[in-house]
């Protein structure tokens, strides 16, 4: 078991103050943080409201948020790890081997599972599934037959790779991606995590319509995931902060024990090895972004979510917001995300 380092009062107050500041600046209607440890200590921090339109009350750890790209590390990444452990997938085999048979050249299908996980497969970066004719050929064929945009091994964040990973998982398992994920989350006790759509209830935080009109509520904000029926390897999952905390505790629980051999622990260890440099001091592992010499792993979601893990100290920070409700969230949320990273790196 990891020897977890509890959060200090000063650290939780700093996070609370930063959350209050970004809510006051209208960076997000509200949000929930969980500062926790592998041994189960949790401090929950909330501010603002769920939405001025659907529920002008404060969110809490049970408020459900659209995770956006956190789907990559809460659904696709762990399921790939499980499939590798079960001998269904090999990381250094091209993805085409795990998809239904295809004819003709398939440049993008030559990207390996490892490359897709680490965003180094060279696939085209602009997803735009609305431009595909999905009636002519299946999506996996359309993507695999495309020319690559970068040399394999070059890091570039690409949703296409995780779309292919999700399709490959469903093919080798013979079951839909959302059912595979639901079984996994149920095993971990993540009772309210799932692919949408979810009910338009007061405890579900709305996002916004891509064209700026009616709010999206309970359906995937990501247009490409929506095109796929809301179930995709790169986006589409909804969850409350408490489930993300439960997930983090499972990920970190055995990390400090060299004798721990659970598949999830071993997969996290393997995934924290750098695969490519993003920028000086920042690397991509399998799925996760690695910072501070690899002592912190994290991932963001476009809607305003983040999950930070500090395996050596057994600490984590969950950020759950619907910042996209008020506009593009990346710059607006930066102070909160930077504060969380700074605290975990010491």
UniProtKB/TrEMBL annotation:
InterPro entries according to UniProt: Beta-lactam-related, Beta-lactam/transpept-like, Diverse_Enzym_Activities
Keywords: Hydrolase
Gene3D superfamilies per record: DD-peptidase/beta-lactamase superfamily (3.40.710.10)
Pfam family, one: Beta-lactamase
Signal peptide segment: none
Domain Beta-lactamase-related: 16-340
Keyword Hydrolase on entry: yes
Superkingdom assignment: Bacteria
Protein name: Beta-lactamase-related domain-containing protein
Organism: Streptomyces cirratus
């Amino acid at each position: 078991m990891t020897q977890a380092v509890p959060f200090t009062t000063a650290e939780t107050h700093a996070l609370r103050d930063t959350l209050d500041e970004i809510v006051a600046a209208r960076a997000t209607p509200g949000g929930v943080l969980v500062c926790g440890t592998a041994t189960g200590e949790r401090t929950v921090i909330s501010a603002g409201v769920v939405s001025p339109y659907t529920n002008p009350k404060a969110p809490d750890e049970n408020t459900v948020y659209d995770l956006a790209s956190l789907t990559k590390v809460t659904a696709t990444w762990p399921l790939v790890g499980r499939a590798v452990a079960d001998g269904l997938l090999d990381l250094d085999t091209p993805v085409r081997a795990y998809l239904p048979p295809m004819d003709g050249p398939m440049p993008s299908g030559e990207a390996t599972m490892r490359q897709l996980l680490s965003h180094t497969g060279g696939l085209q970066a602009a997803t735009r599934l609305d431009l595909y004719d999905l009636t002519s050929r299946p999506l996996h064929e359309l993507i695999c037959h495309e020319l690559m945009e970068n040399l394999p091994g070059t890091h570039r964040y690409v949703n296409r790779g995780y779309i292919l990973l999700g399709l490959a998982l469903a093919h080798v398992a013979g079951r839909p991606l959302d059912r595979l994920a639901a079984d996994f989350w149920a095993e971990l006790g993540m009772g309210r995590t799932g692919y949408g759509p979810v009910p338009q209830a007061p405890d579900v935080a709305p996002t916004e319509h891509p064209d700026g009109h009616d709010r999206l509520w309970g359906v995937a904000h990501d247009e490409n995931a929506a095109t796929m029926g809301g179930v995709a390897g790169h986006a589409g999952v909804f969850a409350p902060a408490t489930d993300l905390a439960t997930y983090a505790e499972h990920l970190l629980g055995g990390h400090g024990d060299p004798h721990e051999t659970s598949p999830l622990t071993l997969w996290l260890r393997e995934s924290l090895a750098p695969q490519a440099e993003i920028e000086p001091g920042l690397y991509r592992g399998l799925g996760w972004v690695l910072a501070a010499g690899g002592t912190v792993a994290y991932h963001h979601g476009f809607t305003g979510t983040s999950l930070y893990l500090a395996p050596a100290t057994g600490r984590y920070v969950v950020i759950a917001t619907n910042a996209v409700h008020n506009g593009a969230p990346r710059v607006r949320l930066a102070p909160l995300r930077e504060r969380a990273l700074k605290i975990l790196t010491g």
